Amino acid sequence: MHFCLTIHPPTRTRSYTHKMNYPNALNYPHAPNHYAPNHYVPNHHAPNHHTPNHHAPNHHAPNHHAPNHHTPNHHAPNHHTPNHHAPNPHAPQLTRDYLTDGYISYTFGPQNAEGYIARLFSVDAPSIQAIRQGDAFYAFNHPSYGIPPAVSLYGRDAWLLDFAVIRSIGSVVPQQLWSPQGQGDRRRYVDQAQLRMPIFFINRDGSLGVPVMDAAAGNMQLRGVHLPPQLADKSTVKLRISWPCYNLPEQQVQLRDQTPQRNPISFERFVKHVGSRVRQYLLDCESVPVQPNNWTVGHGNITFDEVMLIGLVQVSEGSWTPILQLMRRVVMERLERNVVFPS
């Protein structure tokens, strides 16, 4: 029998939104302050300054013997100098709410999600430049594995990073962030790998997610016909699911058809394969004895027809973990792990 140690997660009420201002990094110049006085505009109503009055010096007249008249007075504002202290209404508001509201954070925990996202872009965590547009989080950083940007925002290329959890659906399934056991394998397949951006299953009507039962039956209408660029050069991938309290082998998914040309399969066929593997995984869980808990799988507990596929996250070279969400709420319990919110 498998024993599952659980802890109650911390309440997700703190906000980590930082209205950071990175004008140089984002190439969003600040608008000049047009309301500042310009001390360099000559007074055209003043008497002819070319005939100096030697008895009453004109302090407003230019000194023609002075060097370069175009040298600006650095102590006076200039209409042509941007006011870097004025807020720019066109600059995006950077956020870190993906660490508290996003599916990746809900799946792996905020600390693991922060480290994982930093590896996606090969930068340190504070360097992530992300914004929220509606329910989606986009990053301006270039992914370590080059794929075309999803959109252009504020004149910059942006890549889809995550979605805010749709809480009205139900509880997100917490999972361990899988990693090879050996230090050498971890360095080769995770640390030195170019991890690819997450893949989300978006329906043609704009809604997010597909029930596992519908995906396995091929009953879906997804946006996108072809495999996303993250998978286009692969022939197989491994699905690594770590449902709470269960430890079952990975599942393999074929990305090529059975023709002699071994053509890439369609995106919907790929999602059908993923749905079939997740369904089989949950059916296998029913025969595994575990200590009863809120995530127990089987009759009278959680069954595969209550689970939705939200997307996929690459956890190592060749391995992906599906983001799963129940279509009902459960009392949140997690596998024992370090859950540390960033300060």
TrEMBL record:
Residue ranges, annotated region (Disordered): 33-94
Composition bias, Basic residues: 46-83
Listed name of the protein: Uncharacterized protein
Species assigned in the record: Russula ochroleuca
